[in-house]
Specification:
This protein is of the alpha/beta class. The chain has 7 helices and 6 strands, in the order E-H-H-E-H-E-H-E-H-H-E-E-H. The longest helix has 24 residues. The structure holds 3-methylbut-3-enyl trihydrogen diphosphate (2 copies) and magnesium ion (MG).
Amino acid sequence: MTSTLHIGIIMDGNGRWAERRSHPRTAGHRAGVRAVRRIVESAPSLGVRSLTVYAFSADNWRRPEMEVRALLRLLRTYLIYETDRLIQQGVRIQFMGRRDRLSETLVEAMETAELRTRSGECLTLRIALDYSSREALVDAAKSMAEAGRFDRQFMAEALGTEDIDLVIRTAGEQRLSDFFLWECAYAEFVFTERLWPDFSTQDMKAAIEVYSRRTRKFGGLPAMAS
Ligand code: IPE
Ligand code: IPE
Ligand code: MG
């Protein structure tokens, strides 16, 4: 099977997962990392070519400093301990978002992970970190102005991403929260009540099944059965 599917995941509900257990919110984020590990591992066998996960939005800086710090520390630990496994699995990591507001040690871990996984060919794992789609669009518009090129293709190149086929958002929320607005122009959406730390391979399979039953028309008419 040739994998072509590009899935975006808005991982939501870590806090609620922890609160329901009377645990601190950071315990929810830790459980969320375990879910990422599960989903990354099973993605290639489900026909997924790339996975874009929303790890930390530019607006998440509004959260209490302690939570932000714990989250970013967790991300760094994930990278340090997970890179060898990701290399074995043929996963290539790419980060989207600002880097100038992150600590030097985190940026170092990000760059090392990107460099060490660069030849991974089974799955591209895009991690959106300190990411805002509106900001990414403004930056892309600046490159367009500098180059004097104003067309869709150049915009897509400046953004450095690809179209997203399916967006999955967990925890019952049904909004984009500034997630890849350009890339989601024709995306299908699957919303689930499942909280992110509980999201399983089976849930991922089910979402892909729902997606495969949808008719994508891109403004045209449904493809005629031949
Ligand atoms: C998603 O879980 C993780 C991040 C936004 C970093 P939340 O932390 O938003 O969980 P809820 O929405 O409070 O349950
Ligand atoms: C979106 O989730 C950001 C991430 C998943 C990292 P939030 O929980 O921050 O989004 P809102 O505030 O509910 O829209
Ligand atoms: Mg949330």
